[in-house]
Design brief:
GO molecular function, one term (chains A, B, C, D): nucleotide binding
Pfam families (chains A, B, C, D): GFO_IDH_MocA, GFO_IDH_MocA_C3
Organism (chains A, B, C, D): Kineosphaera limosa NBRC 100340
Helix content of chain A: 25-40%
Largest sheet of chain A: 9 strands, mixed
CATH class of the largest domain in chain A: Alpha Beta
Protein name (chains A, B, C, D): Putative oxidoreductase
Number of helices of chain A: 12
Oligomer: homotetramer
Keywords (chains A, B, C, D): NAD, Oxidoreductase
CATH architecture of the largest domain in chain A: 2-Layer Sandwich
Number of strands of chain A: 17
Shape of chain A: globular
Strand order of the largest sheet of chain A: 16-15-14-13-7-12-11-8-17
Distance between the termini of chain A: 55 Å
CATH topology of the largest domain in chain A: Dihydrodipicolinate Reductase, domain 2
Strand content of chain A: 25-35%
Bound molecules: 1,4-dihydronicotinamide adenine dinucleotide
Radius of gyration of chain A: 21 Å
CATH superfamily of the largest domain in chain A: Dihydrodipicolinate Reductase, domain 2
Number of domains of chain A: 2
């Protein structure tokens, strides 16, 4: 049996929380039936923390682990590269990857500021490689189904939007002062770290935000213990020393959408009891729709007049093969079996791989990241100035 | 058996949607065990629509129905008066009732503007009678329980607030253009009609709003058919003629609370599929709490550390005799049996009657109404000016 | 104004938990618009515990309280009588009321055994007065709406049924040994006390049970402290002495329905954390429906093919004026405002009063009670014998 | 870098619905940190439908696809074998695999009857290889967490159990007559196909069933179109010819548990609107617990006295790293991110691989399968005879 499959050789830069999810995505990409003609070779994990890189390589089946980005980029056999680095490294590393000519799949938010994002987007535009961005929540079947239903006009014209991301990763004041709490390194607290997803999700469902009408940022926990070296994600051993938190724990954005709707997007990383809930709720002239990732195996759609009033009400729709991505990521795809957040990474890497194979641009591209970052940028200005700011 | 009970003779002005609920409240007030020493005499229903007044009197057991407010007020045997009139009549009628020396229980919002509310509040302050206001949602056991839990420190210091009132009474563009859609007659659309309740509820749980940071008002359905005469509440026959809607269908307020919290209050009267949902969600330094009237027989409380992490999570608390008002309004009071919105009117009239009996001021007084109206006033200014406005 | 209304003079026998709910029902009966032509006079509360009777009379506006049933029955001015006595008194008191010729509204279950129920039903059949029974759960708008939707064929032919009543009133082993725990006085533990409602509800929605296929009864808490005198409902002071529980805490019935369906009915009075949840869930050839009283302001209906698969799912229907009873018992009737369990008593007394006014039989009559009791009787036999028992 | 990892070479027999899930499991097994010392080689997919086998091999990264089981078994390099074949082939194929000396992971139910299961269990006992069975639902973090909480005594002694599996895969009467509808090929309809999981789950949480007290089996859809060749899982093209369904669509089992509890287990494959919901609800002397796979990212625990009554209620616990399997299968493990059903296969293969590496028996072994099958066997007898049957 000759292998006629297209081979795509992949590397992941950054072996932390997001990097591991990418590794999982590459490993499972070909489970989609339409990708059986592709062979994804799991080549390299790159992280200066080589122990971490090695362990991630072993756990996710990558051939090797290295510490040096440049060496890896110099390897001509590598076709695609994921970048999952702390935000302050995006502007430093992404240009190199773009320059290498390899296809790039970069974690959100793409830099820390509208300027950084714009600069990177300009570079990406000039590349002929696929340039994708990790707006992973869009790959949840329930959120994608809501976006599709809204686009299909099921709820009429959208007039009111509520987006949110509640997380509790920062609710404990004893949590380590990682790069996420440093405005310089991160570009933003909740407003960007989780706001990136919630803003993108709101735009995905309700169309582009055209104006930030108001933004409020609050830091509730002002000091935290400094981490010992080597932590990843939200977990790190702490030291006795404390340092200041220089970005927001809570952000509330009021926004006007280009389509005429108005709404709020609320971001909190200190939402005790709500560990991870990204949601979008939209009301339109004929109904409403709601998705909440914390019960992501379902979403809700109301359509006025769809049934006699005595038996009409919001429908609780269970995710199923009728929805985007489901069949491609659920090894036993059936209505109601449920998919997890890991599967969102499989779906996005599948989409990235399809674009690479077919040589076409990706839906979640640098322009999408720039658009999202412009909303964050407008929010930060609005928060500072106390006036509306166009996006 | 000599009747040693205190007699309280009651009249209700306005026999519409709210007036009927007051009538129900008076009729059932004495079911509270501690009010068995009071005899509430259901005396008069006053409404220019005498047919309506008569039918309401018959249905709720009032002795008579009259059309003339002044004549009723001149009757010295009447002790207490409820006023449930369209907003533009508050400033006209409430002073007369106050002048009569009778105890007054007035429907929210108390006038249409901060000025009207302030004027009325000044009059009320000078009265030695009880001056209560109908913030009926506060009497829902679940909302009152949340307010109590927050006051008791169960969730720590509140930093983030979300209040809302979603209703669909105006979602149908063919609904009649009643006084509610006229800025002049109403003082506000969703922002005041249902906002009064949601703002009061948010303040009840999270303390006073000190500054409106931003407010957005939108009119989505700009014209409606004019009503034929005689409709009440949200229902009226319509004519062929249409007229303009001059107030808001949707309002979004961002607010700073005196206690340091920040939050949003979203009001919509066109929320398809959410017929009547008033809610408050608060996050604090030790937990969160949530109440939503659409499932008002329960509320949710999360307390960090209250149980080992593997079995901790938001608690779904069913309303029960452990909560305010429950035992007084549920004829068969048991955990989980549920009480409805009608019972909120029983509870508020009970509280009013207690204050009358005991000659003490009421918790929901004109100052509370003025405070709420000042938030609405600040919201309307903020919406006009596009800048923050102190309350 | 001459009063042209029909006068109905009412007495309630038994001033305990259920008697108070009846009192509430009579007091509010005429709030239904179609009952404005009736004047319900709240005449007498009868209870040997005269203090209790007096207090209940005062609280619910009845003219007098007496201890003696016979004297009250001898009063020819009294038109209608409710009986809300412990089960062992039904067979003793109901015949007297029937003999008096007065209209009778009797609390479930109507005696303690199929024989007692049958005897009482035969007496009732011979009366020309209205003979109603208090299957109060049927008056919850949500349950009634489910029954109506099923009857209308919305879910096709029902094949599978689940009924339940979970309560926790007996979950605390220190709760007093009232008449409810005595097989002789009660006729049954959970199987009858709450089973009466759940079985009636299941039959209301899914049609008559034709055969008990299996029944399991369990007593988990075998001894309880004896009560001090004077407790009502589930609450009584306890003594140091304990006594045996002689009926079931938990009962599980498997039943065949005449329409071809099969199902279970589970009853527990020791369901920690589920204070009061009566439910019915039915699956049919075209959908399913579910009602749970613990969130009684909503119910769920699924209809296959009612919407494209990608947006179809169980509908969460909020109770509203579109549903039975709602408008008659909610003083401010609007979708989603919610009604409580108290309102179920208003609705059933309204229906009783209508039947009295119109001189027609009631839907929840002694035959319904007999049918329910026959299911319990069959369940008790099946439990004893370990074989199926026809109803 | 010398690879010091233990190599485990895997084959999967059966490339249908379950076989693909196993393939996914093997592919991701080593993502658990404690399995980084193992190298799982994805060797062979075996299915007579060679096109299917090839496509599954390609999609899940297996080196080859073959049609012949015996040839594969003869290959000494293969260490572990999964069997995911229709039930009637278990008794035929499993003995061969056992005889091969390879480690075996077999899909439930292990044969079609207690006799077949016992025969296979006896064979397995005699093997020194690891002999595991695919009770995949046990690997859902939420169900495992409930089992652990119950075992830890959080809810006291369990007295009442409800288990269920509602699915809708057979709700459409036009669905193809696959092996699942043939009593001879399947060994049982809902009672075994999904009952296997629900019974195992109930035993997992509440301990062994000791007696089937009653069982009811019903076939609602008696004829179905015969499939065209080649379908897998629940999907196949159909022909014009119909054939009889010879097993149950709905099964209701009443059971006594060895620990003293009583309960029901309800199985339906025709539950319109409930595509896939496996659940267990248990009430004990100190609380209750509930898991429902359709919202599998959460479960519910109530503990009496765990908080003051005014704020106590069932806790909605979101699955997180505090729960079994979570960290091992979620590439980005955080509270509330959610895992899907696919991850259950990863977790079970991980556990299988651990047992192989460590040379120890698996928790879900042939004895567990035999125990489950004995409950089904007792249920089928009880259904036939109409009397209780010991397990
Ligand atoms: N899509 C999603 O849901 C998520 C996206 N992210 C995004 O992923 C990015 C990374 O975040 P996390 O994984 O949470 O961070 P992390 O702190 O867990 O991991 C960052 C990793 O980068 C490594 N690193 C640091 N400098 C490096 C360098 N010069 N070269 C190579 N590796 C280097 C660190 O050793 C560490 O292993 C961020 O941009 C974040 O916004 C993060 C989490 C979730
Ligand atoms: N607490 C609550 O939940 C609610 C409060 N309200 C408040 O109650 C007030 C009344 O609202 P609705 O009852 O909905 O209005 P509605 O339109 O249903 O009824 C108003 C009634 O006032 C009568 N009326 C008009 N002019 C009168 C006069 N000069 N003297 C006596 N009666 C007169 C009308 O004939 C009509 O019957 C408003 O201020 C509203 O904000 C209304 C509904 C709910
Ligand atoms: N529909 C429903 O939801 C409910 C129905 N019930 C039914 O109502 C009936 C009474 O139950 P509860 O009210 O809970 O009992 P309870 O124990 O609360 O009250 C019984 C009352 O009957 C009085 N009584 C005893 N002997 C009497 C006599 N000879 N004459 C007059 N009064 C006498 C007692 O003093 C006590 O006040 C039962 O048949 C029960 O099944 C009870 C509760 C709820
Ligand atoms: N753990 C779980 O959640 C699930 C377990 N199962 C179990 O897995 C087993 C298989 O069920 P499905 O995958 O649904 O069946 P399926 O019908 O989807 O697949 C069966 C496969 O076996 C193949 N096959 C038939 N004869 C064969 C032979 N002699 N050698 C090799 N392959 C052969 C067929 O070509 C087909 O591809 C059953 O025992 C079932 O109970 C099935 C689905 C879910």
């Amino acid at each position: 049996m000759t292998d006629t499959r297209t081979t795509i050789r992949a590397a992941v830069i950054g072996a932390g929380m997001a990097g591991q999810a990418h590794a999982f995505g590459y490993r499972n990409a070909t489970m989609a039936a339409d990708l059986a003609d592709v062979r994804v070779v799991l080549d390299t994990i790159v992280d200066p923390n080589l122990d971490l890189a090695s362990s991630v390589a072993a756990r996710y089946g990558f051939e090797k682990a290295v510490a040096d980005i440049d060496a890896m980029l110099a390897d001509p056999t590598i076709d695609v590269v994921s970048v999952a680095l702390p935000n302050h490294l995006h502007a430093q590393v992404l240009p190199k990857v773009i320059a290498s000519g390899k296809h790039l799949f970069a974690e959100k938010p793409i830099g820390r500021t509208p300027d950084e994002a714009a600069g990177l987007a300009r570079l990406a535009e000039r590349s002929s490689a696929v340039m994708g961005v990790g707006f992973s929540f869009r790959r949840l079947p329930g959120l994608a189904a809501v976006a599709r239903a809204v686009a299909d006009g099921v709820i009429g014209d959208v007039h009111t939007v509520r987006g949110w991301y509640y997380a509790d990763y920062a609710a404990d004041p004893q949590g380590a002062l990682s790069w996420r709490y440093d405005q310089e390194l991160s570009g933003g607290g909740a407003v960007l770290d989780i706001g990136a997803h919630a803003i993108d999700a709101a735009q995905f469902v309700a169309g582009p935000v055209e104006r930030v009408l108001d933004a409020q940022l609050r830091t509730v926990i002002t000091d935290r213990p400094r981490p010992a070296a080597g932590g990843i994600g939200h977990h790190a051993a702490v030291t006795d020393e404390t340092g200041p938190v220089t970005n927001d724990d809570v952000a509330i954005i009021t926004a006007a959408f280009a389509g005429g709707a108005v709404g709020t997007i609320t971001l909190s990383r200190i939402a005790h009891g709500m560990p991870n809930s990204l949601g979008v709720e939209v009301f339109g002239t004929r109904g409403h729709a709601l998705f909440d990732s914390i019960a992501g195996g379902q979403f809700h759609v109301f359509e006025v007049g769809a049934a006699p009033a005595a038996v009409n009400g919001p429908r609780r729709v269970f995710t199923s093969p009728a929805h985007p991505y489901f069949t491609d990521v659920a090894p036993m795809p059936g209505g109601g079996v449920g998919t997890g957040y890991g599967e969102a990474f499989v779906a996005e890497i599948q989409e990235f791989v399809r674009c690479v194979r077919d040589n076409r641009p990706m839906d979640t591209d640098f322009a999408a990241a720039e658009s999202m970052m412009n909303v964050v940028g407008a929010a930060l200005s609005a928060a500072r100035r106390g006036t509306p700011v166009p996006v």
